[in-house]
Specification:
By secondary structure, the protein is of the alpha+beta class. The protein has a 4-stranded mixed beta sheet with strand order 1-4-3-2, covered by helices on one side. Strands 5-8-7-6 form a 4-stranded mixed beta sheet. Strands 10-9-11 form a 3-stranded antiparallel beta sheet.
């Protein structure tokens, strides 16, 4: 056995190809006739075959799920968000320390992208829990489009930071500032009262309420 190629039956080859190109795949070859056609896309060792046949030879009860390995999940998330395609960052599991992203193609097929290694230049090689929390906060901000273009924390001596803002931090006095991942981490380490700020409903109240619910098994 040499390789496995996911086959996705789609209704619109152009729409499907546009979606998968946002993930970094490019057309390798195509073919077709009046009854249907195909697009073979790939990047590196990753390939996907998009097929349209009229009528479709399959009618699955559930959408197909495709797992793809990406070298830069954050870049893919940014591309999807810019194109108006819903996506969700789902954390940093052991098999995807660089992050995992879930989305769906135009035909409803679930697509999950995983990045095996954490390759962030500011914290290369780090895989600790604190940095994962920062990555998660940055992913949520990117999905909402909240973050400004530039880090407002900057370096010592007032040196501007060229990195994009990723996370907003705050303190009990109400002071808030957007920073890149590296400078946000520096703020959290040096300011005891600083915390990650978020403009969503994922606060302490619903989390505490869920902890007070009895376990499903009654134990």
């Amino acid at each position: 056995m040499q390789d496995a190629i996911p086959v996705c039956y789609v209704r619109d080859l152009d729409a499907a190809q546009s979606f998968y190109e946002l993930l970094g795949l490019v057309e390798q070859r195509r073919g077709g006739d009046a009854q249907g056609g195909y697009r073979y896309l790939g990047a590196g060792d990753c390939t996907v075959l998009l097929v349209r046949v009229d009528p479709s030879p399959v009618s699955p009860p559930l959408p197909l799920a495709v797992y793809l390995l990406s070298e830069d999940v954050a870049a893919v998330q940014a591309a999807l968000t810019a194109a108006g395609t819903p996506c969700e960052h789902v954390g940093y599991p052991e098999h995807a320390l660089g992050g995992e992203l879930r989305t769906a193609d135009p035909d409803g097929n679930v697509v999950v992208l995983g990045q095996r290694a954490n390759t962030g230049s500011a914290t290369a090689g780090r895989q600790d829990v604190g940095y994962s929390i920062l990555q998660e906060a940055a992913a949520r901000a990117a999905a909402r489009g909240d973050a400004p273009a530039e880090c407002a924390i900057g370096g010592r001596g007032g040196v501007p930071c060229p990195e994009p803002a990723a996370v907003r931090v705050a303190d009990p006095s109400g002071t808030t500032v957007w920073g890149c991942l590296a400078h946000t981490e520096e703020a959290l380490l040096n300011v005891r009262a600083a915390f990650i700020a978020a403009d969503d409903d994922q606060g302490l109240a619903p989390w505490l309420a869920s902890r007070r619910q009895p376990p499903a098994d009654g134990s």
